[in-house]
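Milestone 3.1: sequence recovery, worked example.
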């Protein structure tokens, strides 16, 4: 039976490939590619990919020693599982022919059909379509990996794999389509998300909160980070890779990419320093962990705004995000919600702060695609649209994730046994140890 199932899946995929017809895609164009743009997007794709191993070190260093491998493995497996899902149907669901503004036609790029040759995505005519697909894949990889910090040290690995497949299909890909496809409902409303504050960080943050509530707390919530040096290494890799995340989202080797590079650097540095100073003011010693968390919060917050706001405003975004996220981390610690590594306060809240402040500081002098300037410049439409979208996306991601967690739990129990939790997930889930 174990040999028959993979064979059946391959046959089924082949049949579907024959049944689904080729589709004339209005969003595609024939183009002469620019070698500089192509080289930069190839580089950016690699940079974004390295963020996931960076996240593995970032999270792995924060958990207890008996759960380091399992936590890192949860990030690593996303690179494998989400790639397969993306190739089969994920890219189609996110960027295929529009269906109602909320999802793409799964037949459009089924098994990467129609991505060879000199075809390009309409909005990025200077790079090959297959490169655009691979660049976007890296975002789909890291998003479910971000969630893992919320349920670290207590989730069954097999059930986790099922959940991230469901999350990708029913949460991430609809949000990517709605926000980044030209016919998507949020895109048509005028929502600006340069590199994933809404699609990546808000969706992951709200899913993390849902998971922390659904799985309830660990038996022992004593927090003894295994390796602070891992956290520093992970932060360095995340910051390095984030230049591909944000500057790569400019779509080419151009002035906008350079500007997004600058705003990304500025916001992260400001947030790291703000986090340190807040801790000092509260009577705590400045810590490497705090500096690293602050830097990541700044990176999260500038993501939706990187190509829409000025460099001074990027500093403000980093500062505000650090102050608010630091406060939410403190408030969360006073509740019974066991978000192990504070994914919601850092990624969820950071993403929301970035989305709101994009609606405050975006200006068409930075990027001509900004039709309505931000609230700071006396215009209200963009800010209003972003506020409405924030509530809509939050509701969709939180409630949708709760439903998917319940469905997963019914199919395969999510929570490990108490004895396995006490033993540690490295041994109980993977039969390995540091």
């Amino acid at each position: 039976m174990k040999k028959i199932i993979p064979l059946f899946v391959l046959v089924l995929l082949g049949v579907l490939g024959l049944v689904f017809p080729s589709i004339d895609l209005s969003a595609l164009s024939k183009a002469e590619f620019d070698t500089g743009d192509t080289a930069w997007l190839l580089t950016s794709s690699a940079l974004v990919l390295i963020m996931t191993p960076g996240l593995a070190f970032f999270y792995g260093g924060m958990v207890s020693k008996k759960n380091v491998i399992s936590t890192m493995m949860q990030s690593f497996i996303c690179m494998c599982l989400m790639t397969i899902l993306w190739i089969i149907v994920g890219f189609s669901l996110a960027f295929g022919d529009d269906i109602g503004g909320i999802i793409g036609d799964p037949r459009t790029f089924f098994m990467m059909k129609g991505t060879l040759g000199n075809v390009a995505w309409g909005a990025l005519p200077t790079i090959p379509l297959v490169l655009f697909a691979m660049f976007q894949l890296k975002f789909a990889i890291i998003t479910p990996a971000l969630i893992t910090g919320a349920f670290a040290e207590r989730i069954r690995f097999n059930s986790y794999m099922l959940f991230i497949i469901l999350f990708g299909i029913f949460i991430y890909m609809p949000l990517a389509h709605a926000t980044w496809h030209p016919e998507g409902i949020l895109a048509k409303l005028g929502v600006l998300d340069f590199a994933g504050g809404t699609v990546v960080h808000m969706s992951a943050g709200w899913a993390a909160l849902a998971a922390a509530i659904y799985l309830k707390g660990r038996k022992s919530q004593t927090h003894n980070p295994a390796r602070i040096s891992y956290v520093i290494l992970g932060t360095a890799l995340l910051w390095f890779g984030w230049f591909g995340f944000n500057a790569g989202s400019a779509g080419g080797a151009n002035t906008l990419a350079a500007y997004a590079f600058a705003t990304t650097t500025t916001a992260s540095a400001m947030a790291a320093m703000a986090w340190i100073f807040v801790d000092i003011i509260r009577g705590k010693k400045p810590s490497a962990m705090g500096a690293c968390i602050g830097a990541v919060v700044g990176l999260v917050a500038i993501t939706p705004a990187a190509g829409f706001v000025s460099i001074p405003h990027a500093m403000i975004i980093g500062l505000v995000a650090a102050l608010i996220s630091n406060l939410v981390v403190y408030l969360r610690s006073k509740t019974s919600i066991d978000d192990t590594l504070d994914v919601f306060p850092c990624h969820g809240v950071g993403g929301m702060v970035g989305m709101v402040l994009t609606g405050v500081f975006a200006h068409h002098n930075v990027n001509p695609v900004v039709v309505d300037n931000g609230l700071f410049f006396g215009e209200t439409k963009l800010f209003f649209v972003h506020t409405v979208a924030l509530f809509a996306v939050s509701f969709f991601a939180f409630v949708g994730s709760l439903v998917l967690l319940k469905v997963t739990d019914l199919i395969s129990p999510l929570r490990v046994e108490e004895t396995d939790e006490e033993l540690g997930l490295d041994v109980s889930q993977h039969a390995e140890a540091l």
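The domain at 33-416 is CATH 1.10.3430.10 (Ammonium transporter fold). The CA atoms of residues 426 and 433 lie 6 Å apart.
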